[in-house]
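Good morning,

Attaching, inline, the backbone tokens for the sequence recovery test we're adding to the shared suite. The designed sequence is right after.
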């Protein structure tokens, strides 16, 4: 994280200081009579408002609808939004207006509609996420910035005693993910990974079928990731002017210096390895997460990963992530996982000696062989994989109860790792041995492969 960042001293000092300061601030603004603005921790679990105060970082294609999901939760209060884009079109849907000012407007309109006065002006909009993280009246932050920012933002938030909802994939590299795992455990924070299929009852049922042996012995899992859904400029492309209201240096942050082009940033960052892991990490953080869940591999991973096929755009193209990929992982028990670019409406197929379970797009459907499995329900002695159907609610509940969320940090890390090591095998066009205990490649080509695991953040940003 930035050398400019400070973290405070002892937790107890911080809490005392927070409580006093929040109370005084609330009293000074007259907000003490209104439920708005008082952080939940200022008064403990039985606070009059009992609201969890939130700061949302990254208000683009995913961050804006995500923020709305949290607005819907009566015990949450969005106090701050942050984006390096003041507000513009040019996201996934070219006509959608997103960024910090549109987000602030959404928040204030939402709360205004619920007040007799129809007026609410209590959401601050920031360009610099450190201003959100340093606020002592914010309990938790939602990180929905591009992947190259996940580790820095999450680590800074954790060190400032915030709980974190971090979008998937957990981070851009394996070592960044490991740093997040360590920090969450060391600082005893709640972290929910945005692999929200864990809160999908159909996905859960599919995985319960597999875990309870209903398709017999599992032989193979096939996961799908989508193709590039945007076209970027080819070799010889020329930079374009940075739009007014867009803080490009702060968008790049820990990524290497690079000339601006609109296709580098909003939404399209996912097609460039400097910022993300291509569609493998984008879709795979869901589909490979389902595979890990169904296989019961949340605390482990495969022992081998091999590129079967990978295709890239010509050297010099702005998008450098593989356009098509197919890689094969093998677990120690012999089960194969094939992750391939294919129809993304199919997410994950578990193939067993006595049947099959296929989870379709966003877990909206599942298909079984034999058909009768579709109505199977776990009995009292069967393995059950949790409950609930709202990933955001689950996060807030866990912030209050301090219980583990449905997609805790280790889950995000291990599922993300499948995507990252698959990408590494494809970038090297290699077959590699992976040790899920030490989380390092071993054997032939290990040195080069391990170098991809490391974080390569540009100074002054560091883990
Ligand atoms: N759970 C899901 O199904 C799902 C779906 C889509 C995206 N995502 C994840 O959400 C994240 C964002 O993806 P997206 O599609 O919304 O991208 P996006 O480009 O549309 O939005 C990212 C936003 O973050 C902002 N940003 C960049 N650097 C910032 C910084 N330093 N401080 C504050 N804001 C900054 C950008 O300006 C942009 O508005 C990614 O990690 C992606 O994998 C998850």
């Amino acid at each position: 994280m930035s050398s400019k960042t400070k973290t405070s001293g002892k937790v107890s000092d911080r809490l005392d200081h927070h409580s006093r300061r929040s109370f005084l601030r609330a009293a000074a603004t007259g907000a003490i009579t209104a439920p708005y603005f008082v952080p939940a921790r200022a008064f403990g679990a039985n606070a009059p408002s009992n609201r969890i105060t939130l700061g949302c970082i990254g208000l683009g294609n995913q961050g804006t609808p995500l923020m709305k999901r949290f607005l819907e939760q009566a015990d949450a209060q969005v106090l701050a939004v942050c984006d390096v884009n003041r507000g513009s079109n040019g996201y996934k849907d070219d006509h959608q207006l997103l960024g910090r000012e549109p987000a602030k407007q959404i928040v204030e309109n939402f709360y205004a509609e619920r007040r007799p006065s129809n007026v609410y002006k209590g959401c601050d909009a920031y360009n610099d996420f450190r201003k959100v993280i340093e606020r002592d009246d914010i309990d938790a932050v939602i990180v929905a910035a591009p992947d190259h920012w996940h580790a820095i933002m999450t680590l800074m938030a954790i060190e400032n005693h915030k709980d974190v909802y971090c979008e998937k994939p957990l981070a851009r590299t394996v070592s960044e993910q490991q740093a997040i795992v360590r920090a969450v455990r060391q600082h005893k924070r709640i972290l929910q990974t945005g692999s929200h299929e864990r809160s999908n009852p159909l996905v859960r049922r599919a995985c319960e079928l597999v875990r309870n042996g209903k398709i017999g012995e599992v032989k193979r899992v096939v996961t799908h990731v989508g193709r590039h859904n945007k076209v970027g400029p080819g070799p010889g492309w020329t930079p374009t002017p940075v739009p007014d209201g867009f803080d490009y240096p702060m968008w790049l942050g820990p990524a290497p210096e690079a000339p601006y082009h609109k296709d580098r940033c909003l939404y399209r960052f996912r097609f460039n390895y400097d910022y993300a892991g291509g569609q493998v990490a984008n879709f795979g953080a869901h589909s490979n997460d389902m595979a890990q869940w169904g296989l019961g591999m949340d605390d482990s991973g495969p022992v081998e990963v091999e590129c079967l096929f990978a295709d890239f755009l010509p050297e010099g193209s702005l998008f450098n992530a593989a356009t098509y990929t197919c890689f094969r992982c093998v677990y120690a028990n012999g089960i194969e996982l094939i992750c391939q670019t294919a129809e993304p409406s199919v997410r994950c197929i578990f193939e067993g000696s006595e049947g099959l379970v296929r989870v379709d797009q966003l877990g909206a459907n599942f298909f079984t062989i034999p058909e009768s499995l579709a109505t199977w329900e776990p009995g009292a002695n069967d393995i059950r994989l949790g409950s609930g159907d709202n990933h955001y609610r689950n996060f807030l509940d866990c912030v209050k109860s301090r219980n583990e969320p449905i997609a805790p940090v280790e889950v995000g890390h291990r599922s993300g790792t499948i995507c990252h090591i698959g990408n590494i095998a494809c970038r090297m066009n290699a077959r590699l041995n992976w040790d899920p205990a030490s989380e390092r490649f071993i054997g032939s080509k290990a040195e080069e492969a391990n170098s991809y695991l490391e974080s390569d953040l540009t100074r002054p940003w560091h883990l």
